[in-house]
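Supplementary material to the annual report.
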Amino acid sequence: MSLSATAWRRLVEIVGPANVQHSPEERIAYSYDATPMLARLPEAIIFVESSPQISDVLKLANAESFKVVPRGSGTNLSGGTIPMENCVVLVTVKMDKILEIDPRNLTALVEPGVLTARIDEAAGAHGLFYPPDPGSIKISTIGGNVAENSGGLRGLKYGVTRDYVLGLEVILPTGELLRCGTKCVKDVAGYSLKDLFIGSEGTLGVVTQILLKLLPRPAARRTMLATFEAMTDAAETVSDIIAHKIIPCTLEFLDRTTIRCVEDYAKIGLPLDAEAILLMETDGHPVVVEEESARMIELAHAHHARDVRIAKDAAEAEGLASARRAAFSALARMSPTTILEDATVPRSELGAMIAFIQQTAEKYQLRIGIFGHFGDGNLHPTFLCDERNPEEIKRVHTAFGEIFQKAIALGGTITGEHGVGLAKKGFLEDFAGKAGLDVMRSLKHTFDPGNVLNPGKIFD
Amino acid sequence: MSGPNLLQQLDYSVLQQCIHCGMCLPTCPTYEATKHETSSPRGRIALMRAVADGRLAPNSPQFADEMYFCLGCLACETVCPAGVNYAEMIEYARAEVESGGAKAGAQRGLIRAFALRWLFAKPHRLRWIARFLRVDEAAGFSRAFVLLLPRRLRDLRAQQPKICDKFSFDLIRETESPRTPHRYRVGLLVGCVQDVAYSDVNRDTVDVLLANGCEVFTPRGQSCCGSLMGHNGELELARKLARQNLDAFPLGRLDAIIVNSAGCGSFMKRYRHLLPDDPRVKLWDEKVHDIHEWLVRIGIQAPRESAQPTTRVTYHEACHLVHGQKISQQPRELLRAIPGVELVELPEATWCCGSAGIYNITQPEMSQALLERKVKHIAATDALIVATGNPGCIGQIRYGAQKSGLDIKVVHPITLLARAYRGEL
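Predicted assembly:
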């Protein structure tokens, strides 16, 4: 099946000939996102520049029976922007204007193609702050962040993308334009529709404008790096910090495998025999930062930290944080295929979950490095494998299954921040239950009766 | 015409190393300008892999265009979490394009045959042509003729750097020894463009090395480093030139081979990829040093205090120093060591200036856009001097400054250091 002659003609009319691409090269370059081992050629790639264009493309999709996959920079990690049969990829990167920064109401109004890092930069010029910082912040688009409800390193203290979306302009799969939300902190008029679109993985609508909440920029920050001989000591430190009513902005950890890979790659002097490293950061008023960091250091020592390094200035803080920042890079160069997962459990179960993942790796003879966000229970078990070895990939998938089941059993979730997409839809029913999945399906049908917008993602 | 699938000959794990995370996209000047995945490093690697897999025809015109639209600035390598060897891949991909004949045309073929396979293949030919241009510049034989040329060729003529009165071998003896007993014995590559257009930089390099206790050997049998050919799909010729250099420099008797041109250094440190079977390349790659890297490593003599007032200097990072060789702090360290230099940071210092080898000739529009952006940032620093460690960048930025009426000197950092040693600063 391929696009009809009418569909081709109308697409060119809607966005102009330069914005419709379908050469073999273009189709290859839009066949993938950042998910390993998933790719499929779309029929065409459409670059949109306005919401009326998106509306017209979706109306056409309904009339001419083709599918539409919305895409920002293509950094999705669960296959959410992978094409399906008979589809066009709708790229929003050319809609990249920051329309307004409003310091009186602490809001920003932006188009979906704006790169996430640019929003924080623009806010920074007014002494303001946009906290969500997914790992791909320098290239991910805010439209993609909203669709995936992206997290980041500061989740524990500052929450995730959902906590910063005040309002949306959305084109529904039928082509209608919908606006929801306001600059008001309090707004309870009707169902909170914006919350339906956030994290809907591009299945319920295409976001065309986003109204974001901003915060005042924290005046001070202190960075510390603690080394432990047992993962349980690191976990106890985290629990104790929070029990002492301190909410640090960063509590990141690396396991032994990751520490070794980082040291091998970045040579920053990490102890190779340590079981865990904890990167801790607190930010806010200088006096509070001083007091909280002193207490955090004390608690780390109380839980047998072998060593706590404290950054004296921004440059040293950068140095300490580089251990965590290099984690993924260090692991990614160890093997041809790197599979980054994001099983998440309640903070209190983190120690048990890490131990289970390490046992599972041993059981299936897999190399797994674990790092992630200790503060919010979001783990990144990273599988180091080779896609050309089907037998190994089979073991990887079996291990995944067991890890996800364990996460669910511990009261956690199959994905903390990457989304379900294609990669995890087989596990969703176990997590959400039949009733949950039925409601999701009927919502999808209500919004998208023609099933044209990113169908087959999240569930079949 | 279609040759063997060269990308298939490349070790597949090199292509597979890309995890398509997208981190390279915001650092790529051509992606930033077009917002097209096909013009990004991740997109180009996907296309190369498709050619290697046989899913995309190697003689496809768009594949050829994308491979040559790439600046080869290697900013993507700096940010790549997976350590992808993009430099090698793009060389193979361009060789693939040339063997597939997608860009073949009578005029292009003639220019390539003349420039890559004839002119730059032998240093004496380049010097001979340069001598002609030098005489011509003075006498103005072709000035009237130039006015008849199409606009693009006239622009190119304006971009041509001024030919030096003397070339490197006229200025530098084969062996030069420091006054005090030498601490190190080093070889010097004089380069090709550097040799005819910036031979003074080579002399300055020798002076600085002598001042720091290095005996300098400048073999007459050396050739072009091969980067121009390697970057433009002529891998076999690049290999031939690399072998000539391996023969010319007595590796066993040298502590280092010094290069003052970022592009040459970046290429010469990767001879092991070019000639994997040559037993000498491992030691060679270890001994090749960029001049800034070498000086900081051995520690330099502090230049004498200057009586002159302080001069504001900014530093532009040549792509093949910062991205190709990961040398970023050493040139700044040398500049800060010069009395009378106040170093101010250049915004977007690591963003390509658009020179990129012969890119300013092959892709004038993109090159000009990048140059204008660079000159705008330089103007904003209020510096009187821009220092940068690559002849291509020096020529490009001089041209850009002149075109926009910006009164600024563009020099190699080593020239400033040499002047400081001579007490001229």
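The longest strand of chain B covers residues 184-188.
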